Amino acid sequence: MAGGLLPGPHVEGYSIQRDEGQHAFLIDHNLVTCTPTEYRLLELLLEQADRCVPYAQLSAHLQGEPVADTTHLTQTRTRIIHLMSDLRAKIWALGLDIAAVMNTGYILLSSRTHVPAALRDHGHLRDAEGEEAE
Length: 134
Known about the structure:
The protein has 134 residues and is of the alpha+beta class. It has helices at 36-47, 55-63, 70-91, 117-122, and strands at residues 6-7, 16-19, 24-27, 30-33, 53-54, 96-101, 105-110, 125-127.
């Protein structure tokens, strides 16, 4: 990856570099390789760490344009669910997690930061498989 490394999104407590050409992140000296689609979504989640990224924004980022058709939106949402599950498995050991925010979108959380109180206290935080997060 030498030569292709650029500074990555800032996530408190982490050292992140990225290689767009290889669709990879170097997180605390751990290589996380992604498909091109996974790379785009993980980059967005890292940029918005600790903030909920709505389904509409994820869909637009995935498709390159807003999704308006209801059938296509349902298919895109299903694809996002699978992609988030795959990404979650890749970053879990690094102290990062992707949680589903019920009927809203996804949020990238770090074990090195706290869960936003508004989500924790109101029981709206769920993990990528839809289970309520602790």
